[in-house]
Records
---
Amino acid sequence: MKMKRENQDRYYKFSAYLKERFGCRVHKVSIDAGFSCPNKDGKISKDGCVYCDNKAFSFNTRLPARPIEIQIAEGINLGRKRYEAQKFIVYFQAHTNTYGPLDILKKKYDAIRRFDDIVGLSVGTRPDFINEEILDLIESYSKDYEVWIEYGLQSIHNKTLAFINRNHLYEDFLKAVELTRKRNIKICAHVIIGLPHETKEDILETAKELGRLRLDGVKIHPLYIIRGTKLEELLKSGSFTILELEEFAEVATEFLKYLWPNTVIQRITADCPRDLLVGPLWILEKGLVLDSIEKKLAAKDIFQGGSS
Ligand code: SF4
C-alpha cells in the first residue's frame, strides 16, 4: 500500500485506494440483508443506540424488504450508469450483519457469488457479535474477494458508549480486532465526531488509539440527529449541542493527524435524507464539508499520520 504523501493527498482517500488496488472505478453497493440488531430486538436491549434509525443510514432500508439479489443487481446498474463503475464491493450495511446462525449468514453472503464484477465483500457489525466461527466463514470469501469487516466503535470512551446505549465496551472492540487481525480480513472502524459530552481531547484520544492500532480503514462520521430518535429528545432538552461545520472540520483535521498514514479513510462525511434530518444541516453539503477539511489541512500543513 502506498504512503499517502507520495500522491500529495493529505489523507488516504478510499477512491485512491480502490484505484490503486483494482485499477478501475469501484462502486460500493450497500444492502439491507434483513438482519436485526441485538441492541434493538431485546437480545441485549430494546432501545438501540440513541442516534439510530437505519432508514436514515441505509437507502435499501427505506424501501419495502426486497431480496438481496435484487438490491445487488440494482446497485450494480446504478453504479455503472451514474458512476461509470466497472467493479463492485457489496456492503452488508443495515443493522448487525453477523447476527444469526452460520448457515443463514452463509446463505446471505453467498448472494454475491451470483454476480460478475464483484471484487469485494464488506460486512458491517457490532464488535461484540463476532466469534471464530463467523470469522472463519467471512474469511472463506477472501479466496475470491477482498474482504472487509466494519466494526461500529464510535468512541473509545466507555462513558460515552454507555451514554449512547451501545451496550458494548471499548474492550469488546479490542478483542474483535485481535480475533480478526490474524486473518485475511481487512478491518475498518466506524467512529463518530461530536458525540454528546465528548471534548476535543476525548475525540483525539480515540484518534490516537486508532493510530496505535494501525487499522486498514476508518470511517469518520459527523454526528447528526435523526427525527424521532432519543438523541433528538436529548438535543431538545438542551442536554448537549451539535458541532458547527468549522468545529467539525477543525477536529476532523486533527483526528487525521493521529491516524496511521496507510489507514484508508473510507469516509469523512455523512448521508441523511433531508426529511429525516434534524441537524446539523451542513452535513447535506458534502462538497462544502470536504472543502473545509482540505482547507484546514492545508492551512495547518497537516498530513494523515503527522505534519510535513
Ligand atoms: S448497533 Fe447499529 S443497528 Fe444496532 S442500535 Fe446501534 S446503530 Fe442501530
---
Amino acid sequence: MTLTGRCLCGQVTYTLEGDPLVTAVCHCDHCQRQSGGAFSVNLVARETQFAVNGSLTTWGDPGDDPTGTVHVERKFCGNCGSPIISVPTGRDGVVIVKAGTLDDHSVVSPTVEVWCVDRQPWVTMPELAVSKDRE
Ligand SMILES: [Zn+2]
Ligand SMILES: [Zn+2]
C-alpha cells in the first residue's frame, strides 16, 4: 500500500510506503495547539517508508522539559502551516505522519490513544486497544 498526502496549499506532498507501525490519537496540549483541533491522529512509521516533496519548516518542541531539550521536531509547510510530520529525537528512524494530511482517510484506524490526561472533556473515543494517560 502506498499512501499519499499533502499540505493545505499543495507545496508539500509526500508518500508513505507500506503499512504504518501503529496509528495513534494524541490528546496532548502541544498537538492541540499545533493543529488547532482537539487532538492529532498520527501514523507512526519508519523513516525509510516516508518520502517528502517540497520543503518543510522545523520547530524543535521541548514538550514540558524544563531544560528546553528538544524531544520532537515538528515539521510543517512554511507557506500554509499544515503540520506534516513529527520526528521524535530519542527514537531513531521513526516518523509520525499527521493523518489529517492524507489524501485517502479511509485507511485510518487508530488503535492507541495517548496523553488522555489532556483530553478535552467533550471528546469520547471508541474503545481503543491501548489508552495511556501520558506517553
Ligand atoms: Zn502548504
Ligand atoms: Zn501530542
---
Amino acid sequence: MPVSSDIPISSETKAFDVIIIGAGAAGLMCAAAAAARGRKTIVLDHANKMAKKVLMSGGGRCNFTNLYVEPENFLSHNPHFCKSALSRYTQWDFIALVDKYGIDYYEKTHGQLFCKNSSRDIRDLLMQECQSAGAKIQLKCKIIEITQKLNKESGINQYTLETSLGSFTCDSLVIATGGLSIPTMGASGFGYDIAKQFGHNLYPTQPGLTPLTIKQPKLADFAALAGNAIDVEVSTNHASFKEAMLFTHKGISGPAILQISNYWKPGEPLHINLLPNIICSDWLQENIEKRPEINLKTLLATQFSQSVAGFFVQEIGIDCKLKQLDHPQINQTIQFLTQWTIYPSGFEGYKVAEVTLGGVDTSEISSKTFESQLAQGLYFIGEVLDVTGHLGGFNFQWAWASAQAAGQHV
Ligand SMILES: Cc1cc2nc3c(=O)[nH]c(=O)nc-3n(C[C@H](O)[C@H](O)[C@H](O)COP(=O)(O)OP(=O)(O)OC[C@H]3O[C@@H](n4cnc5c(N)ncnc54)[C@H](O)[C@@H]3O)c2cc1C
C-alpha cells in the first residue's frame, strides 16, 4: 500500500481546504473524515513514518478501544469537555470500522480490545481510510512557520504554512501533534507552541501512564525484585486502581502503577493493598488456627514469590511461627499487607510515559467541533488537548472521537 505521494519542493503555494499537522491516530482519522466530505485534505508530519505510536502501542497489538468507555475514564481540568465527542463517536463505531476491515481482535481484560495479529492492522486501516477518501499524507515535512490572514472576500481566516517542502495554505488547520511522550517517536511540543501563538492557555504538562521511581537505599530492595509482579490495589488521596504491579530496576511499574501515576503527586504516599482479593484479617486468623507451626514468611510465600515474601517479612520486621504472633504483631502484619505505604521519588519521565497530562485548555475549544474559540479555522484534537485517558484503550478512543468531531466540521 503506498504510504504517501511525495510533494516536490516548489515555489508554488499548495492550496488545501484542510491541513492537518500530525499523522498519528487523531490526525489520520480526522483526515479520512474530512476528505470523505469532499474537503481537499492533506496531513503533514515531520516524521519518516506515520502512526508510529499506533505501531508501538499495546506491546505491538494496539489496545485500540475499550468496551466500557465513560467520561470518568478521562482526566481534564474541564471534566465535561470530553462527553460530547465520546458520545457522538463511540467505541462501537470504531469496533464497526475494525470489523469492516476484518481485523481480528480480542478482549484482554477490563474491556480492553487488542488486535490479535498486530498494531499494523490499525495503521493500515487508517491509511486505507485516508486513501479511499482521497486525503493526502506528506511525511518528512518540517513546519517552519504558521501565519493567519483574514480573506476579505470570503470573510474567513486563511492559514499559510511555511515548510521544508514549500508553502501551503488552507481554510481549516488542525493541530494533531500529540503530547511530549517518547520524543524518539516524533513527539514534540509543537502543538503547544501553536496554541500559545494563537493566544491559548496551556495547563502544565506532566508525564502520564508512567512508571514511578524509588530512591536509594530502598531502591536496592525493589531492584533485587525486578520482574516480580503482584496483584494489588493501589491508592492515593485521589484515586484507586486494582491491577498488577511490577517491581523494576528503577522502582515500580505495571498497569496499577501506570494508572495511579496519572493521579499521584510528588511528595505524596501510595497506599498499597497487597491482598486485594481476600479479607486479610480472616485469612491470617484462619491460618494461625490451622497452620500454627509455619513461619510468617512461609505463609506469605503462598501468595507471593519466595523473594517477594522475604522482602515483605523484612519490611514488617517480624518472622516467627504463626502461633507466636501476639495481637500487636497480628495487627502490624494486617496493617502492612493491606496498607503498605511507600513514597515514590518521581516519574520515570517522558522517555517511557504513554501519554502527557495537561496541554491545551479545553475551555477555549468548542466541544462540538474542536475549533478554537480564539482563532476561526484552527482546531486542536487528540492528546495535545488537556484530556488524558486511563490505561486500557481510552487514549485511542479519545483520538478517534475528537478527530471525528473535527472531521465533520473542518
Ligand atoms: C508506548 C506507548 C503505548 C501506547 N499504547 C496505547 C494503547 O495500547 N492504547 C491507547 O489507547 N493508547 C496507547 N498509547 C497512547 C496513544 O498512543 C496516544 O494517546 C495517541 O497516539 C494520541 O494520538 P494523537 O494523534 O493525538 O498523537 P500521536 O499519535 O502522538 O501523533 C502525533 C503525530 O504528530 C507528529 N508531530 C509531532 N510534532 C510535529 C511537528 N512539529 N511537525 C509535524 N508533525 C509533528 C508526530 O510525528 C506524530 O505522528 C500508547 C502510547 C505509547 C507511547
